[in-house]
Amino acid sequence: MAYYSQFSKESLDALRLELEQQLKRYESENHDLNMARGKPCSDQLDLSNALLDIKIPLEKNPNDDFRNYGTLDGIPQTKQLFAELLEVDPSEIIIGGNSSLNMMYSTLAKVMLFGTSEEETPWCHIKDLKFLCPVPGYDRHFAICQKFGMEMINIDMTDEGPDMDQVEALVANDPTIKGIWCVPKFSNPTGITYSDRVVERLAKMKTAATDFRIIWDNAYVVHELYNDTEPLMNIMEACKAAGTQDRPYLFTSMSKVTFAGASVAAMAASKNNIDFILGIMGVQTIGSDKINQYRHSAFLKDLQGVKNHMKKHAQIIKPKFDLVLKILDEKLTDRQIATWSVPRGGYFINLDVMDGCAKEVVEMAESVGLKLTPAGATYPYGKDPFDRNIRIAPTFPPMDELEKAIEILCVCIELVSIHKYIERLDHQEEMAQ
Amino acid sequence: MAYYSQFSKESLDALRLELEQQLKRYESENHDLNMARGKPCSDQLDLSNALLDIKIPLEKNPNDDFRNYGTLDGIPQTKQLFAELLEVDPSEIIIGGNSSLNMMYSTLAKVMLFGTSEEETPWCHIKDLKFLCPVPGYDRHFAICQKFGMEMINIDMTDEGPDMDQVEALVANDPTIKGIWCVPKFSNPTGITYSDRVVERLAKMKTAATDFRIIWDNAYVVHELYNDTEPLMNIMEACKAAGTQDRPYLFTSMSKVTFAGASVAAMAASKNNIDFILGIMGVQTIGSDKINQYRHSAFLKDLQGVKNHMKKHAQIIKPKFDLVLKILDEKLTDRQIATWSVPRGGYFINLDVMDGCAKEVVEMAESVGLKLTPAGATYPYGKDPFDRNIRIAPTFPPMDELEKAIEILCVCIELVSIHKYIERLDHQEEMAQ
């Protein structure tokens, strides 16, 4: 039985007054707190400062000079590093610039203009394009679909990935459903990692569209908070086994490994896909920044080097996750007015408040100087059908600011929830009269 | 009167034998020479090695950290630098990644998918798209048009830019002609700089297409070989004066200032265009590599700093241009079988051999170990209607290799020309019988 339903209206009113006083005190403190985006903090960035001092070898052979033009798909050592990360062959890798988001947008823009292969219709010439969006999910994925005029279809997230019954039923019959967004490990924002069963079903499912694509945004591939590794089935191998190897486009980047704004991104795909994409990329550019590629390879060395480096990130950010979870637990568990994820990696804590309360909570927090990810942002078109989901990004603020931020957030959640309960009581009274 | 036409068939045959012997000697020397692309040489790249040692300020304010996410359009100091280079306001600048080619492709890809503005039709939904291509021109421009399925229309280059009578007549009546490629300064490959009159006519001309765009690829904006500056009228000001400020998209990069493969590119455009493009870019990426932007700004400082730096480039590459021109003059001027440009900047010498000979010359050179830009590459679809244009890129090879390369090239030109003359004589004999 819910905590507040045991309270009389008078008790609720007293509590409301007390919380409103608290909110006013926060307001008078003139806070400027920000938990809106999944950004690394300065201490995390400092972990990679040695990247700036990497000596670039000035090759004797001028045809092999990192400073000059050339090498469309990336230098061998960086392809090797990303191949280890994404568990594919280096020949299945293309290195991009500093942003995997840019690679995802650009890959889909290519598919819009040129199709997924010579044989397929460019998506810009297909009416009623649709894309599956597991929700809650990543707002920047949804923004790309929206920009390309694709209708987005919500798919419920379960604790082992997207609800595959929904997915299979939809893709089997509708050839205008062209793909699905996936953040398969430490999903943004729910934090879950896809089960083997889900990965296999994604690989094996029958799709009415012959050019169906899985956008496999493995942004948090090595972003563990704990010492043990959360296993994720290899989608490329699963698809090869199922004969659907052209289905997945894999992406990742070093943005949350080294420097968020100045790292190296990569994609992986089947040989068919790589050849087709490189055919267009060869018209688009002569190649990405090889000096930055070299810096990253020299600094991180190999998968084990990346994993060792990520342990240092975990040492900095796990205490932040722990602090948020501790305060949420202390302030809200008994109240039974919110539930939240306890992620083992990634960048977010996923918070569900009472239905119909998320927007009000976020607005109230902002009114006293705490900026959160906008309510609804985790849903296509910014529309959370339940108005309950809030994404918490604990990495960027320093510990003292984070503590204050979560305290404020909890007060806002309590207050909005109490308003809701009081409304309910008022409504019951009205009905009884 | 042409030199070889004074020769008897016997004299020509003797000369042919001599040149063929020479060619065999070259073949036996196993050369591996490359003048195919406009690449800087190692000595040029070395001029910017200090860029690698620039200290990145680690900001006290974490919201203003070059290492972190953010700043879609570029950091202020780099926008300021490019604004000086392109003679526009910093608010009219967007900083990109390492490649202006990528920015051009990506801007046109946006126009294909979204149009030039909210009001205009996306070009991918327009049939019979056409683009004007001054010829000879830059093969990578033409490759973009071809990839996007645009019909390319050749426009003759004069010694002051594209033939504006042709351009004006075409654009006035055909709304499917959507734009024109321009390399306005030290044009690739002819080396000419557009006259004020041409720039003004481009700005003022009436276009049937309301979304006509000038792609102003100012790749060689500061790439002087001589101490004096070759003036170029400001297209943005000319267009503002003519009320066509949304017509030009300007591009340039530091690729041939610092590191060809790891520099910073930028575009400039009217406020309307910048707003529209940033609106799409905001979906595409969080921003380009700010660390590399900072390095460039700190290393080059301002326009004067860039100009000083370019003088060092000129010291390295002008002797290469001079050597090529000297050998061409010694070997070919008297023969009257070729003409070539004497550029005051840029990266190329434009060579015209006798009609119908370019392909054979390039193939012959390749057969003895000298790789040139493919004949025809300077024309849309790789088709030089006269088969006479060859682009010489003298910057990359060391002086000794360059000398050998041009000697080989001259022998090939002589030999192919003599074949042509002998053919003519044979033909005349046949006709006389």
Automatic annotation (TrEMBL), chains A, B:
Keywords: Aminotransferase, Coiled coil, Transferase
GO MF: L-aspartate:2-oxoglutarate aminotransferase activity
InterPro entries referenced in this protein's UniProt entry, alphabetically: AspAT_Ic, PyrdxlP-dep_Trfase, PyrdxlP-dep_Trfase_major, PyrdxlP-dep_Trfase_small
Pfam families: Asp_aminotransf (PF12897)
Keyword Zinc: no
SUPFAM superfamilies in UniProt: PLP-dependent transferases
Gene3D superfamilies in UniProt: Aspartate Aminotransferase, domain 1, Type I PLP-dependent aspartate aminotransferase-like (Major domain)
Coiled coil: 9-36
Name of the protein described by the UniProt record: Putative aminotransferase MSMEG_6286/MSMEI_6121
